[in-house]
Amino acid sequence: MLNAKTRGYLKLNSEAIAIRHFIPSDIEVVMSIETAAAETPWSRAHYEDGFKHHYEMYLMSVEDIPVGFIVMRWTGDQAEILNIAITPEYQGQGLGRRLLCYVIDIVKSKQVLSLFLEVRFSNKKAQKLYNALGFNEIGVRPAYYEMRGTKKREDAIVMGLEFYE
Ligand SMILES: CC(C)(COP(=O)(O)OP(=O)(O)OC[C@H]1O[C@@H](n2cnc3c(N)ncnc32)[C@H](O)[C@@H]1OP(=O)(O)O)[C@@H](O)C(=O)NCCC(=O)NCCS
Question: What is residue 152's three-state secondary structure?
Fold first, then answer.
């Protein structure tokens, strides 16, 4: 099995990486990825809603091991990324970037005008990735996120990627 604790340590073989739509029986594994990676993971009901509302939900595997996922929805001529995570042991090797690019290509192919997302103010790592892919900061939602273990809340930065200027 791959051991990828050190950022940049491993050059992943593209052929070992697969991305497919996830199905209801994948919810368990997606939840375990998110529980390991994220501060306030979604509940099962969020994912069930995703199926109900026809969100685009993709699971990424490396050598058949599920390592990440992304959830996106269409909102008219715009699209929104609602969730993305890579399991911690596999972070820092280009998988998040690859998953995001996969979805950006799908969105572009549908003639959608812009793609949005929200990210925690403190999540500089994710913001760096979004900036690198052309997203710009377009607003702030004050006190949008819960902060685990405290009663405080954290701002969300709203970021957007425009396809046709
Ligand atoms: C955000 C996340 C999906 C990125 O996935 P990843 O596979 O680790 O990212 P990548 O290896 O593709 O890195 C892409 C870019 O992200 C940034 N990045 C990644 N790891 C970083 C680190 N440790 N420090 C700073 N920037 C980092 C860099 O810009 C990097 O590009 P570079 O390698 O050319 O410098 C992943 O860290 C994650 O699951 N985090 C927890 C959940 C989360 O925060 N989701 C986002 C919610 S909005």
Answer: coil
